[in-house]
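Amino Acid Chain and Its Fold in Token Form
===========================================
Scope: a single protein chain, as residues and as a discrete description of its fold.
Amino acid sequence: labelled as such and written in the usual single-letter residue code.
Position: the record begins directly beneath this header, with no further notes in between.
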Amino acid sequence: MSKVLIAGLALLFAAGAAAAQDTPTEREAARDIVKQIHELDQSLGVPQMAAQLTLPDTTRDEVIARVKQLMQTELLPMSDWITQHPEIGFQETQAVEKLTAYLRAHDFDVTAGVAGLPTAFIAKYRRGTPGPNLGVILEYDALRGTKGAFHGDQHSAQGPVGIAAGIAIAEFLTRSNTPGTVTFYGTPAEEMSPPDSKTVMYKAGVFQGADIIVRSHSSISTTRAAAGFGTCCLNIDTVKYTFYGAPAHQMTAWNGRNALEAVIKLFNNIDSVRSNIRPEARIQGIISEGGAAPNVVPDKASADFYIRYPDSVYLQQVTQWVDDCARAAALATGTKVKIEHQGEDRDGISPATLEELSFSYMKLFGATGIEPDAGKPRGFEETGSLSSQLPGVDVTAKSSNFSNHTYGMEADALTDVGHKGFLIDAETEAAILYDFATHSELRDAVKSEFTRIKTLFGDYQKALETVYPKPDIPDPK
């Protein structure tokens, strides 16, 4: 690899890292920390390592050929079938049956219903040996839509993609007597509200012992994340506000207390303070329950909210403010409110050692829609919880001409653009796992980088705590 090309890659990486955080306040707080991350990856020789690992390798090519065979003969048809039979979160029984039956037939022992989630599972390679534990996440839930469930995020392919990569690697480990094993994690309901199933499964110890995690996801372009910490979709608090009043006939409404009016007041209260909340915040709510009949004063009404901000420190202030808006709404309407903090998504960690390797392989295998610059840091899964604790990568080759959560993306899952992207994702996952299993220097670099970024994330949180002061409002005299 030429020195000019290596220098160019380093400059691209630096540009991506410089744009790591979303707001000017965050970028100022993270300035020194981002510099340290960049210096770390320069010391690890990330571009050079990716270039070296992606050089021609006959044995790796045999693994990739097996991935291609599995995808084209059996697993792309399975992906199509799941696309055509969508099931929303925690109802993915048909998809799970197909995926787990295939794994059992290929030397994997399956445990269903892990972490108390009926459609979650774990599958362990029967012939694995002590060594690196190579983890593969499988997703399979569909989106909830007004026309019914649909695979507008192409989760229908994520199971078959991961299975092709994991099985090809497992067979290689046994054939070559290479130490290690493969573990599949079936993670349902990714599109449901936080807490995400991965968070629940992690807290239950399901991922204990994994050394690396790979996962794929649909995309309208071929991308990779810069090194650091962040999230695809902002830090999120999920909160449910339920108001309780008293019923009465609407013709004598003064005998009751209107819980629906309290919900409406909550929305109005939030709108009244938006100008005092930093503009990067997103407060998104729906009325999930509003009464039973027009002639009865609603004595119970609910609203569900996603409260988002680029970092969790200021998000805490925003969520407190929305909670206070709910309390004020209850006070103003003579009702009572129950506030339920149901879950959260937080920043994850993206290591350049895996992101740059993934990007190099996607290009090598013919991915289209290449985004040359690294995007902002984000974990390999949306919740951040798992990717802040275990190193991994989200493989994102272009698989659609339409944006996420659209009927166009679902349709593309059944066409050449989808099939090509899914095959490249599977080949890339397998290549990364092959390198991780066979190159101790990659394992050491990933561990070193991930551990250091995790420490720096703690420093970043402390820096943010000093830059979001609240105004001092004196008590009235």
Observations:
- Residues 1-19 have pLDDT under 50 and may be disordered.
